[in-house]
Amino acid sequence: MRPRDLHPKVGLGFLPLVVLLTAAGAGCAASSLTTAPGAAAQGEGDPMPDLEMADFWTGKPVRLSGLQGKVVLLDIWASWCVPCKDELPALDEMARRLRKEGVEIVAVSIDEDRAAAEAFLARKKKWSLTLTHDPAGIVPSALDPPKMPTSYLIDRAGILRGVSAGYEPGDAARIEARLRELAAAR
Predict the structure, then answer these.
(1) Beta strand ranges found along 15-110 (DSSP E)
(2) What are phi and psi of 68, to 5 degrees?
(3) Can you tell me the distance from the alpha carbon of 72 to that of 27, in angstroms, rounded to the nearest whole number?
(4) Cα angle, residue 56 at apex, residues 38 and 94 outer, rounded to 5°
(5) Cα 91 to Cα 55: distance, rounded to the nearest angstrom
(6) pTM, whole model, 2 decimals?
(7) Coil, strand or helix at 30
(8) How many structural domains is the chain composed of?
(9) For residue 133, which phi and psi values (nearest 5 degrees)?
(10) Domain that includes residue 113, residue range
(11) pLDDT tens digits for 121-166?
């Protein structure tokens, strides 16, 4: 999925495709936490690709390989995705609590319109999670997320251990429990 595939400002020629994808569950949606292969381009137990994103504020590169040794939650979100707007603040609180346990939460904005992402992020003075930006859609092209938002749970060795597709308010506790479990496994 590329950001423009689900972006509400796509040309009208793509509107039927967007409606079809959303109806089929490929857009912003309710969640599921899976640990089975097939929820991502990689299956559970596969190494994650060494993706590179730009830090949202500085533009400096953030690489997954640079986070090895930490448990990572890689979240793909966008300001136009309604569930993402609920999920991101919950992930930020989680990042604040779990950082001391060796957990890093990286939120990748796929907004093509940077100003829209900035406007959303301005609602909060300080963010605890690592914010990155991928307007070209390199990360979703590599991972092929099934829904928006989608989070990838990655262990300390860089191995995919689960995928959370979509978001509902009750998901935060389940995701946090799984991250704590991965952090405790040394």
Answers:
(1) 32-34, 52-55, 61-63, 71-77, 103-109
(2) -60, 140
(3) 24
(4) 60
(5) 17
(6) 0.80
(7) coil
(8) 1
(9) -135, 135
(10) 3-184
(11) 999 999 999 999 999 999 999 999 999 999 999 999 999 999 999 9
